[in-house]
């Protein structure tokens, strides 16, 4: 696990480690980690598959995010000694504990997109 700095204070109680929500967001937060974890809920994904699934991410950023998720124990990286080398990523048991959260985030995002589209269409009709 990386050396993290608590910065948001305490949520409730007197926890010396800071807010548990802060800890969760530190591990899975950011633009890409949740998306990476979402794609892994469907099973093993190869590095180049991630590049196709997430065309907006640079190779450097993808590598960094995968390394951090691996360092935090959420994903497993398996290198196959082939030519060319093949690298596959999958969720660890700890990573699988996030599936319910990730799928709930997907459901919320779908609902939000529908509401935003509806509200946006209603605003456009009122102009």
Automatic annotation (TrEMBL):
Pfam families found in the cross-reference section: HxlR (PF01638)
Residue ranges occupied by any HTH hxlR-type domain in the UniProt entry: 19-117
Alphabetically ordered keywords of this record: DNA-binding, Transcription, Transcription regulation
Superkingdom, taxonomy of origin: Bacteria
Gene3D superfamilies given in the database record: Winged helix-like DNA-binding domain superfamily/Winged helix DNA-binding domain (1.10.10.10)
GO molecular function: DNA binding
Protein known as: YdeP
Lineage, highest ranks first: Bacteria, Bacillati, Bacillota, Bacilli, Bacillales
